# Entry
Amino acid sequence: MATYLLRRLLIAIPSLLGISLILFTVLALAPGDPFSEMATNPNVPPEVREAIRASFGLNDPIMVRYLRWLGAMAQGDWGFSFASRINVDTLILQRVPTTLFVVGSSQILALCIALPVGIYAATRPYSVFDQIANTLAFVGFSLPTFFTGLLFILIFSVSLDWFPFVYRSDIAATGWRWYWEMFRQAIMPICVLGLFQAASYTRYVRSAVLDVIRLDYVTTARAKGLGEKTVTLRHITRNALIPVVTLVALQMPAVFGGAIVTEQIFRVPGIGSLLIDAILANDTPVIMAVTFVFACLVVIFNLIADVLYGWLDPRISFS
Amino acid sequence: MNEQDLRRLIANVKDGALSRRSFIQKVAAVGLAAPLANQMLAFNGVAMAQNATVEYKPTKAGGGGPLKILLWQAPTLLNPHFASGTKDQIASRIFFEPLAGWDKEGNLIPQLAAEIPSKTNGGLSADGKEVIWKIKQGVKWHDGKPLTADDVVFTWEYAADPATAAYTTGAYKDITVTKVDEHTVKIVFKEATPFWADAFVGVTGQILPKHHFGEYKGAKSREAPANLKPVGTGPYKFVDFKPGDIITAERFTDYHVKNQPHFDTLEVKGGGDAVSAARAVLQTGEFDYAWNLQVEDEVLKRMETGGRGKISAVVSGDIEFIILNPTDPWTEVDGERSSVKTKHPTLSDPKVREAINLLIDRDSVQKFIYGRGGIATASFVNEPKQFKSQKLKYEFSIDKANKILDDAGYKKGADGIREKDGKKLKYVFQTSINAPRQKTQAIIKQACQRAGIDLELKSVTASVFFSSDVANPDTYTKLYVDMEMYTTTQPQPDPERFLNQFTSWEVATKENKWLGRNVSRYSDPAADEAYKAAQKELDPVKRAALLIKVNEIFCEANIILPLLSRTRVAASVNNLTHDHSGWDVDTWNLAAWYRS
# Structure
């Protein structure tokens, strides 16, 4: 087990280096310029623009810039944002709590819907309930979040006037009122993300349960005279959920990464909207840092998913 | 009214024989706007009254509750001298103030200055090389320390230092500023400078506290804690800032204007897009104010029907225009296309350019696409009114265009496209990706088709089009096409610096990495001469005439085809009285906003 972990971690280093090199090169080759806004402004003379570019090291060759970035990163210096001129790590840490709250809650909501619905539908395949659940799941993951998001805004904010559609991280209230305001503003983005995720989880849970429900040990359990409830929960679900757990673990980077489109629509100040703003402003250090963090999360959670799988299912061995 | 009549009238005002107001009415009758009249009087030594631009009704400071502003581009920093975009300038203006700001008519209004320098109060020297600013007494920084001339002098040192990497450097690097006494500073220019209101004024002019930034001049500028926790003199005091998301502030109780500001707290939220920002103000009323709504007017009108909010549009120096390329974009000379050494096969013919100008239906573009967002025009400079050419007129006539092309010998071929000597009137027409622009392109293409001119429409994503990427052929300064359309901004209510894009020494070439501001590549010795004369001319009337001439030379040559003078559109809830200006940022007079 320990050798397996060590081997995986060692393999991760060259792959992360490769990812960072590719990211950096693509960003350097991509068109656009962090100072484009100055270009149309006659108040900023060209020589000033050039001087600022030079002082930010943008005129050096790509490889020199990459090695400088890598050296600084190795020492824990993530660089600073061209747009806000503050350190990138501070910027990212500011966004993490909101993203964890909104995207995390939506994942929990998704599981709360998907597990019971998926299991119940699988135990009664092709029943009316199963048909309805299947149809809704299809509709759910066919509708993109930007569409459901706008639909929610039009219905619940504009027409009914129930919820605000602008998410504010600083709510000027205390006590219960704060929780109530927080709930009101978070409910729409959480639902949009949660329902979308729930739709695909439901189908996953259903097929996983269907896979095990026909196995011999389930028949054995029934033959022993166990109640239907015990059979479903203790014998079927426990085994069916092993692939689902790995799926959720693989989804974790997305929880940290935020939901780019939904965050943009509801103005949720999470990591996803930070990335979008940085891309629009050609703020290379921020784009680089955020995408690199994503890459690390993907690598780490892949490892966690593998380890978790082996722990849950004793048939898997790491040697 | 000729120059002599004007001078006689001004003399009358000076002697007291004619009141200021009747002078303004008299000159208004002959088409001179109030700001010009005021400028003429100020130049001739008649003192100007301090004028507030919005009537402020509250009788005490505070008590207005919260004010919530929504910027659909989120502010990312709060140091006004690092602010590259309007969003950051708006945000930093809440906390910092300049000596004077620009109101919506282009008048200079004192903010931290006691008065606007003029010849009478001794603020302006006769040779145009010196300006003396008197600073308002009793102004306090948010931490209680007094504002003095040291802070103003320091702001110059800070911004002028190239190592600071301030975007405002341009306004400060060629001047020297000295302290005269505790509340007076003197600016010395190297040469006579008719437009002196640049340093310490408006967007570029915000004064920094020396006691917070003193140690962080030059290369250490990024480390200043005050970059993120601003201490200024503005009406609201800093509470919290999350870059790219939200700013919160509270009323500054020691603000230097009596009874201001009205609101107790202020919140500026950023992010999202313009349409949903308009919706949050006009339809749901979640926010009180949203800026820069570049949204089709029809959409805004539909949202306004709810009756919760209103739209306000103010004139600005933004001009949407088309360039006809007089050089050949399809032949490469010394490693660049559209080189000034080449001539366009057909667009170098003034008759063809004249015909194209007649094929632009500006009224329809305004009516059906921009609405309140733009005013059709034939002049490149439109605001302030004294700089607008009265001579330039536009017309839409397909028949006239056809006749001009017929007379010039361009015959229609079998495919309906005109040609002469085997050269066809086929052009590539480029602009940035933006829904109103694509619609405008389509309107122009249709009209050109009916005159036998074929346009191939091309649109480039804005982040590429407006970049200065030397390697990319699609940037607007490369002009590797026959025609292109975009908006350019005249930042101050004085077009001198703006019009340098019509001079021969600013032509964008490979040599200057296409950083030159004259994108059209056209030049005319007469325009160069008028421009140079205007740079030295201290008499505002003569100077305006010279600058108008520069504008007319390019528009009459049909190299520059102005379309619309753009307005700045903002939305506010019904009970909010606000004051935004096309010559300064939206929050320039935030202290005077109130709710009724």
In short: The first helix of chain B runs from residue 3 to 15.
